[in-house]
Amino acid sequence: MAGLSSQTPVGATQSDGVIAPATHCYNRRVATQPNTDVISALRERGLRMTPQRRAIVAEIMRTQGHISPTALARKVQGEMPGVNASTIYRTLSLLEEMGVLAHAHLETGAEYHRAEEAGHVHLTCSNCGAEDDLSIEEADALVHLIERHHGFEPDLTHFAIGGLCADCGKARAAAG
């Protein structure tokens, strides 16, 4: 997934030369915490609110869906050249620790999303890279099966389930 989802339109070429895959986020809600609340919470932790940190928070809060640290850096550095990657990673980590963000490991690496958007399972096509989401309710049967057979409580929101999307599955079946 290319990025918190003001992503490159499907089929368009991203700045890194990769064609953007289809992606859908199951639960696209607007952030419930405005930038000022997040900034106040960071200040309460004794952190200085530098222009760089403000720009990072603003970009995260205005974007819906997922974003990779690389995509976030590209957007923030486009507005404010010179923002260090380490500042971006530290801010992502702090926001996750505070419960503002959560992350999932997708086929392209870790991607962050606002915590209130976490109620879904990621599905990633191993062939074309298309991504889709499955609600937690739809995944309950799999969770219960794993719990029943293994006594293990899985967190399916943290990783992507790889496989073939409907289009690639049809193409494979047609090819014989």
Task: Give an overview of the whole structure.
The protein has one domain (35-175): Winged helix-like DNA-binding domain superfamily/Winged helix DNA-binding domain (Arc Repressor Mutant, subunit A, Orthogonal Bundle), CATH 1.10.10. The chain is an alpha+beta fold. A hairpin with a 2-residue loop joins strand 1 (101-106) and strand 2. It is built from six helices and five strands, in the order H-H-H-H-E-E-E-E-H-E-H. The strands form two sheets. Strands 4-3-5 form a three-stranded mixed β-sheet. Strands 1-2 form a two-stranded antiparallel ribbon.
- The N- and C-terminal alpha carbons lie at a distance of 29 Å
Rg, rounded, reads 18 Å
Mean pLDDT over the residues:
80
Assign a percent range to the helix content: 40-55%
Total domains:
1
Strand order of the largest sheet: 4-3-5
Q: Helices and strands: which structural class?
A: alpha+beta
Q: Count up the helices.
A: 6
Low-confidence stretches: 1-32
Broad shape: globular
